[in-house]
Amino acid sequence: MTTTDTEGFVAALRGHSRRYHDRHPFHRRMNEGGLSRQQLQGWAANRFYYQKNLPHKDAAILANCPHREVRRRWIQRIIDHDGTAEGEGGIEAWLRLGEALGLTREEMEDERHVVPGVRFAVDAYVTFARTRPWTEAVASSLTELFAPDLMAERLAAFERHYPWIDRQGLAYFRARLTQAPRDCEHALRVVTEYCRSADEQAGALAALSFKCDVLWSVLDAIERSCADGR
Ligand SMILES: O=C(O)c1cc(C(=O)O)c2c(n1)C(=O)C(=O)c1cc(C(=O)O)[nH]c1-2
Predict the structure, then answer these.
(1) Which domains occur in the chain, in start order?
(2) Which of 92, 146, 159, 220 is most deeply packed, by most CB within 10 A?
(3) What pLDDT, in 10s, does the model give residues 69-95?
(4) Which ipTM value was assigned to this complex?
């Protein structure tokens, strides 16, 4: 594949930013300070279902990937989310975020607030990683190319509009500001190296499209449940 082919492929992947969930009305309202405490709680409890499933998704990629050098790097994602000891890792940090919003650990962990649309979308993401070619599963993680801007905006918005949230609770987002660029730089390298044919590249682009739909559907379902007052 020529450099130009790779550039075109990468540009097409990056072009998916137009479909990223930073443009979803629920995120817009969140960042403008328009959400109530209860709505933020609903968002955090539902998003916890996404967070807790990420290691399952990444373990599926490890299970399907035949390349040692890729697995060696990919395993870091599971470590980041699970931590290596009690009280560490991204899942723990998300629980602390939930607590800062006024939720208990128990009500996040027992999934009582998880609405059907969120469960469907997140489960579809994990199933995708289990059943599709491993390169497509890697490509589907590339929404993280677009995440750091949203994360920075969210941090500023939370501090400005929701001063009642303990700053310590926002540690999850601060960690992602460095983890996400590192992770997606690796994922992008893997995808450009292992998706060479037109079919493979089309598969990667479709996978990223699918993932944009997953994230959008999660917010649609959360927004709907807030409107219903659930
Ligand atoms: O809050 C967000 O908007 C957001 C988005 C995404 C994403 O774009 O998939 C991830 C995360 N957060 C995140 O925290 C995270 O750990 C993460 C892992 C992945 C992935 O697909 O492997 N996406 C995301």
Answers:
(1) 3-227 (1.20.910.10)
(2) 146
(3) 999 999 999 999 999 999 999 999 999
(4) 0.91
